[in-house]
Amino acid sequence: MKKIIAMLLALVMVFSFVACSNTNDTKDESKGESVSEGDSKDESNKDGNSNGKKLTIYTNSNADGREEWLVSKAKEKGFELQIVGAGGGDTLNRVLAEKGNPQADIVFGLDDAMFGTIKNENLLVEFEPDWAKEVDEKNISGKGYYYPLVEQRIMMLINEKYIKEGPKDWVDLATNEKFKGKYKLPSNLTGGTNQKALISVLYAFKDDAAELGVKEEAWDVVDSWYKNGRVTPEAEDENENFSNGKIPVTFTFSSGIPGAEKQFGHKSTPVNPEYGVVSMKEQIGIINKGDDKDYQLAKDFINWFGSAEVQGGWAEEFGSWPVNKKAQEKADKRMVEIMEQTTPMDLDWEWVTKNLSSWIEKVELEIID
User: Does 33 reside within a domain?
Assistant: First the structure.
């Protein structure tokens, strides 16, 4: 029975990829399932784009004022938005469940692997935004069906006030006795950032010819990682533990770093392994509602939302790192430093998508007590 339950959980967990955080375990930038509508009055768009027509948008990036900001700014341009916000896995599952009768016009915020799943289900419309050429080609993986807005990097951090020389990579962290009991361990593998921490450990052992896509010795390292780390109890705050030196090695997503540093008064030092850190892109795409659907309104919105002006404003307001190169000049200075201090990992997302559920199942059944 335990194995059956764990297998079912593992299948669900693969859908929770996007990286963001609450107090103790990372989750999506969603404030929980919510529906927000703009003013229903029919207003003409000053730019001739929408004529007051409504767009339904599914997203996992609606927390901390994002939803309200987007609805307000879009209304100024004549777009009336209905935002349906939920976690990344829930958003993905909803899109897939509605395949026979899609309700969303646009989805944004989900990562490369999630959008790949949506595309494979023929649920996206081919479209090239006006701003696509302002994005480095290496950041575009959607083959004309979805495009990146924001980059998140998931990385290990050390507090140099308490630990002068940190681990060189995730394998060193897991196997070096001097870090025993000093680093944060994920309490579960349901969150996107927690999953990417596991991916970071396994990446050094990638072997497409091996079972589960990794060399057998990888699991000894994962076992050590779990045995030697510390899960943050619910009564404690992981950022406070990092700040006061109780747990001087942690991991998180890039856009969460500046806010935590300001709140707790510490300085984080990223660990940049030789092979880099996990980098994922929050994507945007148009939902396929059939050949007879007019998609012009959705295209107009994406052209506006992904523009340098709007993404620059989004970066200023919410501390993100836009992939639109013209918008990056508006990014927080601390974010610029973090991006300069880390290198994106050359991650094969097909490898991840193929094996993640099996990795989680193995960890749940054989490693986590």
Answer: no
